Amino acid sequence: MSLFLEMHNISKTFPGVKALDHVDLKLNRGEVHALAGENGAGKSTLMKIMTGVYRADPGGSILVEGEEVTIHDPVHARSLGISIIYQELAVVNNLTVAENIFLAREPRGPTGLLDTRKMKADARAVLEELEMDIDPGAMVGRLSIGQKQMVEIARAISYESKLLIMDEPTASLSHHETQTLMRMVKRLSGQGIGVVYISHRLDEIFEISDRITVLRDGATVDTQLIENMTRDRLVLKMVDRELSELFGEHLSHASDEVLLSVRDLSLKRPTTQGARVSDVSFDLRKGEVLGFFGLVGAGRTEVMEMIFGSRPYSGEITIEGKKVEIHDPSTAIDLGIGFVTEDRQGQGLVLGMNVRENFSLTHLSDYCSFDFVRRREEKARCVDYIKSLAIKTPGTEEKVLNLSGGNQQKVVIAKWVARRPRILIVDEPTRGIDIGAKAEVHTLLNDLAAEGLSIIVVSSDLPEILAISDRVIVLREGKVTGELTRSEATQEAVMHAATG
Amino acid sequence: KDAGDITVAVVPKVAVPFFDDCNTGAQEAADALGVNYQWVVPQNTQGSTQVKIIEDLMARQVDGIAISVNEPKSVEGIINQAVEAGIAVLTFDSDSANSNRSMYIGTINAEAGVTMGKSMGEALGGKGKVAIVTGQLGASNLNERIDGVKKALAEYPDIELVAIEGTEDDLARAVSVTEALLRANPDLSGIFGVSQVGGPAVAKVLAQREFNDRADALKVFAFDDLPDTIKGVNEGYIDGIMVQRPVTMGRLAVEHLVAQIQGEETDPQDFDTGVTVVSKDNLDSYTK
Amino acid sequence: MSKTDTMEVVERRGGILVHVAELRHVREFNVLLALLLVGFLISLATPYFLTTNNLMGVFRAFSLTAIMSIGMVMVIITGGIDLSVGSAMGLASLVTALAFEAGFPTGAAISAGLATGLVFGLTNGLLITAIGLPPFIATLGTLSIGRGLMYMITHGVPVTPETPEIFSVLGQGYIGPVPVPVVIMLVLMIVFAVIMLRTRFGRHVYATGGNEHAARLSGVKVNRVKLTVYVLSSTIASIAGIIGFSRYLSAEPASGFGSELDVIAAAAIGGASLAGGVGSVTGAVIGAALVGVIANGVVLLNINTYAQQAITGGVILIAVSLDVLRNRLSGGGN
Amino acid sequence: MSKTDTMEVVERRGGILVHVAELRHVREFNVLLALLLVGFLISLATPYFLTTNNLMGVFRAFSLTAIMSIGMVMVIITGGIDLSVGSAMGLASLVTALAFEAGFPTGAAISAGLATGLVFGLTNGLLITAIGLPPFIATLGTLSIGRGLMYMITHGVPVTPETPEIFSVLGQGYIGPVPVPVVIMLVLMIVFAVIMLRTRFGRHVYATGGNEHAARLSGVKVNRVKLTVYVLSSTIASIAGIIGFSRYLSAEPASGFGSELDVIAAAAIGGASLAGGVGSVTGAVIGAALVGVIANGVVLLNINTYAQQAITGGVILIAVSLDVLRNRLSGGGN
Ligand SMILES: Nc1ncnc2c1ncn2[C@@H]1O[C@H](COP(=O)(O)OP(=O)(O)OP(=O)(O)O)[C@@H](O)[C@H]1O
Ligand SMILES: Nc1ncnc2c1ncn2[C@@H]1O[C@H](COP(=O)(O)OP(=O)(O)OP(=O)(O)O)[C@@H](O)[C@H]1O
Ligand SMILES: [Mg+2]
Ligand SMILES: [Mg+2]
User: Is residue A189 domain-shared with residue A314, that is, in the same domain?
Assistant: First the structure.
């Protein structure tokens, strides 16, 4: 294998944060190079420097095919053969899937006008390679977040690149799509294309990477061939703890008392597009952790949105035996429901506000006397949560925009947990957070259940679902296709129900 | 044609009190003659707006149109078209002299300006610094008045015109402009309010504590008899108002239109309605 | 309307609509329906409305606003705004008039007017892209400067030069029964509708407004797109200015003042969202038509002239509300 | 300015600024600097500028715009816009005048004016939240309706009733050397600055504009927030209308026309982004002050009246550009 790209002595300082501290990185042609590290370790920042989004502090250098280069912007990076799938979605909602994939390099016909037919056909070809069943003419704004992620992936692989960076491409994908992607990555590397693969899912890393670099607090702590790396060692390098001490035993706290009961939940006025939810029924008991599994687009998020009042439904929802009508989120919140949304940037956070303001938005009245906010108290609570969830931020007054992806996710979790709802719905709660934090979130959910909270966990991470749920409900194409107790819920059984 | 079958339309420049008086006169005349009457006020002072209104009135097949022109040249074409289509068209208050309109009824603005300038010259004894507060900077009738004022002042070499300020015919703006004018020119001795907003604005400024002591030294001449302008005269802040005869204009406009439509008037001539200089002395006795 | 709203509307519509092109289609269709409805009601009430002469007059009357709204809607789709269109229009008409006064031939005079628009647009574009001023401030500044220049040049006196016969065709001529300004409006509408829907540039305009950050990361030259739309907007406004001058043969010192609101309104009524990313050229023209027809109707129906503005406002509210409610019902809203 | 732009600016600023509150702070500080600079330059050129009388006069002159911009900036922070402030102001002043004419006592007349603003704002708010009209269209509609009503009521003739002495204090009185309208402006500024920065409602206004969807999902009653800001905006505008009437004791049929642009400009110059989420009450007032000082300066300096508008526009562009460039430099943009 020959060297494609080298980064030397790369540092990056943000106000109040040293994100990267003298990092070196060498990437070979055709190599799958995993990049691991806890949230805020600097992985995304390093990749953004490689693609010209940020400029590194003076003193560092980047060599592409042996020549030193200054990378001006992502377009320039692409011309050097480097393309990237960003951790945060960068799609244009008001354009179609095909238009997004070919944005800024749209095919043109002989007249100079767009060749939409070719564009759609090409898009369809790429999507088929990824085994994605999305209409190239569909508006991206209407897709679920997982589907948007696939569109980004499709766009990235359709570039003729020599190095493809994937920053947590699978965070919002489920098992099936992940497997397809793994195959895709292997094929690309077989063609001599280098891949940088960032993920917090250790299985994936061990499955496909050739080498691995671990970052901690902005510095390289290890680079190894994957053969020389073990899970335990990786976790130790990343979070400085033993894997075995991370995840505790699962204890069920479920009582027999039904708290939430959903009957025949369907999307109101269903339209013909997409997988739409129909006739979903289930019960949620007090202190129970109920897992929801399904493939991308199975309709799990849609069910949760209906319960939370952000999507019109028909059917019946009862809480503690009382029928309730939930037409907007504030009603749901008043009824004691909390909802950690899967799309943290679009739905979870006000990016222009700081950590404190985002944190307290769900429960601001806790700190209010006559509508005046008692800021000191607000701040103190926020600091508590920053500590307990190990949110890496310079302080409560940092804009969430400047936090790393995983730390943003933690803020979303914190803002709901701090509200102490009776029913907490978490949709892909550990999306993009590191293994240490994931363990902490699992512990947190377990502790909350122990306090008598009822929790619904939607996750595409099958091991996660199996690890923390008392019971698992499986959705396929908007319908319940399985309900399994903890003992029945094996990997095979759940997958069977999900894929049919 | 039967009076009942005749429709005449009167189009002012904008909605201001002056034209409300015109409307009164025109309506009275129309009622007296028994003709149908339409009053159409443009939404802004652009020439094109009036063109559009005339087009609409032609489509409506009115028999006569009297218009106070915002911008003389731009309505020429459409007035000529209307005349060709057999509609009687005359102008009042503000003319489009090169068009084929049958006649003009109204004040000769330049002459009114001259009268205003002369009044000021006499009031100041031929000596002092003066300023003009106008309305919309583009309005042709105001520009004619300003020209008239300048022409009259040319006779008084010791009177210096130190500033002309636009106000967009907005009272609030006119007040703050007048204040700044007075501050920037501590020795100012005369103000012309050539648009309707000038009189009320100057009167209000002079009534203020800060400027009250300058009221005596300052000679003010204004245009049009708005209630606040008249009040200003009564209170001694304004020395004279050029009062036109809007009611008369409106009445005459309709009367002449109907006469022309019925073929009674075949050789119409322009009609100067003149201005009256109204001061404290004749405040109760003038007519519009 | 916020971006999320827009998306929701899109989602609501669900069924019938699959992609942007169709969506735009329907938006326009709704406003067109409102337009036809208003027209129908007026024609019931007065026989004068549905005559060729009147309709052509109405078309010609709103054509200038409509032309300007074509440039405006592109700016709005990028998420910007151009308050200076009225000044660009007025200044272009003034420069053309001055060029005639200076004895330039027709071609040169028209070019001078167009160049004025171009320079105006470049100024806006550079203030926004190179200096980084918010579009509202940048174009508000040039709006004032443009007006000021017009006053300084004219001292409030209209410029009315002699012009060759041929020049007046632009504003006063007819092709068959159709006034030339209307023809120009339709040509521009078709050209820019095609550009917006079928060219790379058009896609990039939508992308810039939809998600500027993502567009930039994808390689869209966002600043160039913005510069271009501001140049187009001012240049198209200058075309309107030249036509206007040709029609009235008088360049008024205050021409175009206040028209920015009418022009933006046309785009907005035609479905453009000031949040960017949404809108269409045909929609904007139909929006201008709706306002024009209402204005005509009020005079034809001899409605109390003082009420005209109130009625116009009311009808616009009702027309757009119908559009919004229709969407909600058909889509199954929250 | 689009959201991404805002974010970039924020990124660029880096160094000094850590959080939103400080950011707001600095924004204001920059405009304040520009204001002081302009004031300093004017005072160098003319001795009449820095006199108590003139300064108080200037303050009083821009106080109405500033008051209206306080309501406007809250609307803009939610991501909306209120084009109807001028109409709300004018109508409120007219209704107050009519109430006096009808013989109402002062308290009742003022209440009638305030009620007008309230109803106006409720209408806007309901059109936007209940029907779902885009704010631009909704308030454009009510702008027209308001103007139309004023014409219908007055036929263009100002209403000048007799009023009790006490009433004129509101517009003409002084507290020490400070005109009462200026005092009212300062009080409103402080009250609403505190509300925006220290209360739950204020937080919700920023959240709504920052990310409406996320705010709604966090339990913010987004529609109620919007309704409230529109009601506040119109009501505050009606306060300006009542003060204006008290000052001139004449309710002009065209008062407030066209002021929407001035008011929005004040908010924008003061740092508010039309994309929502960003802005401040004090910034808006300082923005109004900047424009007011320039307007006073051009008259004091006896600048040719025809050039005044161009100069005003130019100075605003330069002042805001300095702000933008300063931020860029201090942030050391990428
Ligand atoms: N634009 C920015 N301004 C200020 N700080 C930043 C900015 N971007 C990143 N940071 C900080 O730099 C550090 C590294 O962030 P980065 O996004 O690279 O982490 P990461 O390793 O990708 O984490 P994750 O696994 O959560 O995605 C974090 O502490 C983050 O807060
Ligand atoms: N084929 C499709 N075309 C367009 N939209 C689709 C399609 N399939 C699903 N959708 C959209 O996807 C959403 C349904 O997926 P939802 O997000 O509820 O599922 P999920 O199981 O949570 O999947 P994900 O992991 O992707 O979030 C709906 O919003 C629907 O509009
Ligand atoms: Mg990251
Ligand atoms: Mg989901």
Answer: no
* Distance of CA A19 from the midpoint of ligand 1 (Å): 6
Residues A480 and B152: their CA atoms lie apart, in Å, by 94
Paired with A135 in beta bridges are: none
- Contact partners for chain D, using 3 or more CB pairs closer than 8 A, are A, B, C
Cβ of B183 under 8 Å from any chain D Cβ? yes
The pLDDT of residue C8: 37
Question: Is the CB of residue A42 below 6 angstroms from any atom belonging to ligand 1?
Answer: yes
Check CB contact under 8 Å for C324 and D213. no
Name the residue among A226, A255, A215, A239 with its Cα closest to residue A32.
A226
Candidate from A12, A25, A199, A403 with most ligand 1 atoms within 8 A of CB, to mutate? A403
Containing structural domain, residue D93:
28-321
Q: Cα dist. A259→A66, A335, A340, B244 in Å?
A: 64, 11, 19, 83
Query: What residues of chain B lie within 8 A of the CB of C299, using their CB?
Result: 40, 53, 56-57, 60
Indicate whether A288 and A142 sit together in one domain: no
Q: Mark whether A106 and A237 lie in a shared domain.
A: yes
C206 and chain A: CB distance < 8 Å anywhere?
A: yes
A303 is in which domain, residue-wise? 258-336+421-499
Confidence (pLDDT) at D15 = 36
Residue with tokens 């924020």: D10
* Residues 10-39, chain C, touching D (beta carbon < 8 A): none
- C319, pLDDT greater than 50: yes
DSSP one-letter string for A433-498: --HHHHHHHHHHHHHHHHTT-EEEEE-S-HHHHHHH-SEEEEEETTEEEEEEETTT--HHHHHHHH
- What is the mean pLDDT, run by run of 10 residues, along chain B of 288 residues? 88 88 94 92 83 88 92 87 94 90 91 93 92 85 90 94 87 87 89 91 88 90 89 91 92 94 88 88 79
pTM: 0.89
CATH of the domain at D102: 1.10.3470
Which residues, 6 or more positions from C186, have their beta carbon under 8 angstroms from its beta carbon?
none
Please give the tally of structural domains in chain A: 2
Q: Cβ distance B286 to B276 under 8 Å?
A: yes
Say which residues have a Cβ less than 8 Å from residue C130's Cβ, sequence separation at least 6.
Answer: none
Q: What Cα–Cα distance (Å) separates residue C278 from each residue in A261, C208, D66, D76?
A: 41, 11, 33, 20
Q: What is the torsional sign of CA D148, D152, D158, D159?
A: negative
- List chain D residues with CB under 8 Å of C138: 317
- Please report the pLDDT score of residue D121 as a whole number: 96
A72 vs A19, A24, A62, A137, C221, CA distance in Å?
20, 20, 12, 33, 13
Dump pLDDT digits (tens) for D300-328: 888 887 888 888 889 889 888 887 787 77
Is C148 touching D (CB cutoff 8 A)?
Answer: yes
Tell me the longest C-alpha to C-alpha distance in chain C.
64
The closest CB to that of C254, out of B15, B55, B138, belongs to B138
A22 pLDDT more than 70: yes
A215, A241, A267 — which closes off a domain? A241
Find the residue in D nearest to A15 (Cα): D15
